[in-house]
Amino acid sequence: MDKFAYIAMSAAKEAMLAQSRIAHNLANAKTTGFKADLTRAKALNVEGDGLESRAFALTTGTGYDLSSGQLITTGNPTDLAIEGEGWFVVQAQDGSEALTRNGAFEVAASGMLQTSDGLPVLGDAGPIILPPSESISVGADGTVSVRPLGAPANTVQVVGRLRLVKPEPTQLVKQADGLFAVANGEILPSDASVRVRAGALEASNVNTVEALTELIDLSRRFEMHIKMLSSAQQNDEALDRLLQA
Questions:
Q1: What is the per-residue DSSP string for 102-122?
Q2: Sequence-distant (≥ 6) Cβ neighbours of residue 168 within 8 angstroms
Q3: How many other CB atoms are there within 10 angstroms of residue 89's CB atom?
Q4: Of 51, 97, 100, 223, which has the fewest CB atoms closer than 10 Å, so is most exposed?
């Protein structure tokens, strides 16, 4: 009977963890550039003395859905979206390079191009610093240009070029802050094939209908496993009464 209870307990725990992951995805359904988390679990035998007659479920790792979200036109020149594969490079709080698909950038008072969280956006020569200007434009190849204050309408000054990279999906590790990093800490070279669309943002790739359906299914599975535990307890009590008779 303990095998029955052990399996039910293990399955209930994994269902609860999966519900937390789905709830996290739903909470970020409106987060620009968010990539949905995926959880994998498998059955394993309990090791120890005697036969391996007991099994349990174990989460073997958390992955993520790297598919592109819908591009939404905003018209803001510092709102940028990557078309197809590729990533923006920003400077994380610890000074390391981090990757993001969230192109909701803004210009700080110092002129630095930064994320909404205040992280510097990196170009091929370091953080991109914009001089006082009348207008800003970003080309499809990531080239950042401005029209300086007081300059004629046809005057264009190139400030720099966004650092755009295209790592292999297996190289990426998602961090707690939603940014991605390269697993081995390698500094990736810029990739000229990455294309940028100015005046647009990439929406989250979370499918809310699918996530809600999965959340309901997991909730029912959790309830079923709890009922199994209750049944195991009732069977044990019935067996004790028979032995006492």
A1: --B-EE-TTSBEE-TTSPBBE
A2: none
A3: 20
A4: 51
10, 66, 198, 146 alpha-carbon torsion, rounded to 10° = 90
- Report the run of H or E that residue 5 belongs to, with start and end: helix 2-27
Amino acid identity, position 14: E
C-alpha distances out from residue 149 to 108, 131, 146, 231, Å: 17, 9, 9, 76
**Closest by alpha carbon to 73, among 170, 183, 200?**
200
198 bridge partner residues = 80
The one-letter code for the residue type at 3 is K
**pTM for the full predicted model:** 0.81
3-state helix, strand, coil in the chain (%, to 5): 25, 35, 40
Q: For each of the chain's 245 residues, which pLDDT tens digit applies?
A: 466 777 777 778 888 888 888 999 999 999 999 999 987 777 777 676 766 666 666 666 668 899 999 999 999 999 999 999 999 999 999 889 999 999 999 999 999 999 999 999 999 989 999 999 989 999 999 999 999 888 888 888 999 999 999 999 988 999 888 899 998 878 899 999 999 999 999 999 999 999 999 899 888 888 888 887 777 777 777 766 777 76
Q: Measured between alpha carbons, how far is 26 from 206 in angstroms, rounded to an integer?
A: 7
Cβ atoms of residues 164 and 142 within 8 Å: yes
Which token pair is 188?
Answer: 């990736």
User: Of how many residues is the chain composed?
Assistant: 245
